[in-house]
Amino acid sequence: MALLPLQLAALGAVLGVALAIAALILVSLVAFITATEMPPLHRHEAERFFLNSGGQREALPSIAAAPTKQLSVVVPSYNEEKRLPVMMDEALGYLEERQKQDPTFTYELIVVDDGSEDQTSKVAFKYCQKYGSDKIRVITLVKNRGKGGAVKMGVFSSRGKKILMADADGATKFPDVEKLEKGLDELQPWPDQMAIACGSRAHLQKESIAQRSYFRTLLMYGFHGLVWVLCVRGIRDTQCGFKLLTREAARRTFSSLHVERWSSYVILYCKGEPPNMYRLG
User: Fold this and answer.
1) How crowded is residue 98: how many other Cβ atoms within 10 Å of its Cβ?
2) Above 50 in pLDDT, residue 120?
3) CA neighbor of 194 nearest in space, from 269, 260, 251, 151
């Protein structure tokens, strides 16, 4: 009889996972049925501009234009005033040193403030004032869109031949971008100039499980199973925020993005003809 509470707890956890999976399936079906073939990019008038280092407004470029930088780094940020400086210092330290070693290397780092309620934009703008607005740009969204929407806004305002998505929490060591670049190069020749290199934390799964509760571990496996069945089977970690795309792959992929929240990372692999992919980790 002493095991009864544990059995009830396990049953409750299983039912919770089942309900979560059912809800996700329902949301996916509704999104699929109601989605348009090519959703327009809704951009508020204030989101068409950025502030240069002098505090003056300048129009943002379009991904439809020819690239003028080798690398664009897009950093979606929501209430990241505390964690963002650590990530920015590491990323800019690497990028500046790389440019010093190779003067032909050019980059830009775009921080997309996803409607934050803290001082994220002000913190990011300090880096714009320090490094100049040709290298650092801050896009402040009028309202919160979700991570997928924030990345999309940054990608569509980028100037790079290659576009890197990187999280503001610095969960991935920024120099690992070289591994993604190597993986992207190994995919050549790129069909229609499209290729994506995906970072992965799958090799850290055992460590993360040890730190999670039993219920969260069940949710994780349930989500991964759902993604494997309904979406993509070749990418072990679809939610890793460290991805490198060619400009054409970014343009076509994000043009087809219907969902702007966290699950958009899965939707990216479900829409249209997938580009070549390389998995890191």
Assistant:
1) 16
2) yes
3) 251
Torsion-angle region of 193 (φ positive above 0: left; ψ -120 to 50: alpha; else: beta)? left
DSSP string, 49-112: EEE-TTS-EEE---TTSPP-EEEEEEEEESS-TTTHHHHHHHHHHHHHHHHHH-TT--EEEEEE
Alpha helix ranges (H) inside the chain? 4-34, 84-101, 120-131, 147-155, 177-186, 205-211, 214-230, 247-255, 264-267
CA–CA distance from 224 to each of 106, 115, 189, 278 (Å)?
Answer: 37, 29, 31, 19
CA distances, 257 to each of 124, 146, 150, 175, 222 (Å): 26, 12, 12, 28, 24
Instruction: Copy the structure tokens of residue 102.
Output: 């190779």
- The span from the CA of 222 to the CA of 214, in Å, is 12
Distance CA 212, CA 214 (A): 7
Evaluate if pTM is beyond 0.70: yes
Q: Tell me: the pLDDT tens digits for 160-193?
A: 999 999 999 887 889 999 999 998 888 888 888 8
The two beta strands, 57-59 and 49-51, are antiparallel
